[in-house]
Amino acid sequence: MPTPDFVLALRERIGHAPLWMPGVTALVLDAQRTRMLVVRRADTGAWTPVTGIIDPGEEPARAAVREVAEEAGVQCRPLRLIDVRTLPPMTYPNGDQAQYLDLCFLLEHTGGEPHPADGENTQARFAPLDDLPPMNRRFQEMVQIAREDRPEARFRR
């Protein structure tokens, strides 16, 4: 589901006004930690990790696991939080304005074969960490943080 029902309900009240949203980015590695799950977005054609909006009251790590299952049809378990950042304000083609607080989690694949499961993506696959498809700078930074394998999460100052 591209836009959660709670966001649609909020939009009925606030129109296109800026909306502060909590979100997750899920970096899912295979058990050998040599490949990462990537999806090709249906709306832009860009390759990305799985991303999504945290539902009201939902635990962020559970949101990451849920989004991976919904978008790519695979199961995974969260390992740790690796990055926290505020994304720049954005305006969607329909005029809706939003800004996201993004929590990036490192997860481990536990089952299932990737496939575009919900229509948000046209492709889903594991790609070698040394040969990922082109991704924007934000996702490249997150992959680098994950590859450093440090226990602490990164925060912008």
TrEMBL record:
Species of origin: Brachybacterium phenoliresistens
Superkingdom classification of source: Bacteria
Keywords linked to the UniProt accession: Hydrolase
GO molecular function: hydrolase activity
UniProt xrefs under Gene3D superfamilies: Nucleoside Triphosphate Pyrophosphohydrolase (3.90.79.10)
Cofactor(s) needed: Mg(2+)
Protein name according to UniProt: ADP-ribose pyrophosphatase
CDD domains documented for this protein: NUDIX_Hydrolase
Annotated SUPFAM superfamilies: Nudix
